[in-house]
Specification:
Number of strands: 9
Number of helices: 4
Largest sheet: 6 strands, antiparallel
Shape: globular
Number of domains: 1
Structural class: alpha+beta
Strand order of the largest sheet: 1-2-3-9-8-5
CATH superfamily: RNA polymerase II/Efflux pump adaptor protein, barrel-sandwich hybrid domain
Radius of gyration: 13 Å
CATH architecture: Beta Barrel
CATH class: Mainly Beta
Helix content: 10-25%
Length: about 130
């Protein structure tokens, strides 16, 4: 069972959010990357794009499949992690740290409260 960081909130669709003030960093969970296996391509949203919670805004492709990544929160994309575009395997090796996907300025901080706690996410994935 993978280790679930306690400072993250989780979407049921397997994205995580690390909030800092009115901004958040978003990535996919270690569980999700393990299910996908070897990630070979990452397509990230454009900086400045506005997204709504639950909206598909990125794509992660593995040797098995391509998966849409949904924004767990609404807001404006402020940065993308070009390191994962150059080296998609970072998502496999450091899903909840260096393998982050994008940063977002929160449009509605209350949306974070609707996300799963680490314990609830652990229960969802059968942990």
């Amino acid at each position: 069972m993978s280790n679930i960081p306690s400072d993250l909130k989780y979407a049921k669709s397997h994205e995580w959010v690390r909030v800092s003030g009115d901004a958040a960093t978003v990535g996919i969970t270690d569980h999700a990357q393990a299910e996908l296996t070897d990630i070979v391509f990452v397509e990230l949203p454009a900086v400045g794009r506005k997204v709504k919670a639950g909206e598909a805004c990125a794509v992660v492709e593995s040797v098995k499949t391509a998966s849409d990544i949904y924004s767990p929160v609404s807001g404006e994309i402020t940065a993308v992690n070009s390191a994962v575009v150059d080296n998609p395997a970072l998502v496999n090796t450091a899903a909840d740290s260096d393998g982050w996907l994008y940063k977002i300025k929160l449009g509605n901080a209350a949306e974070v409260n609707a996300l799963l706690s680490p314990d609830d996410y652990k229960k969802q994935i059968g942990g």
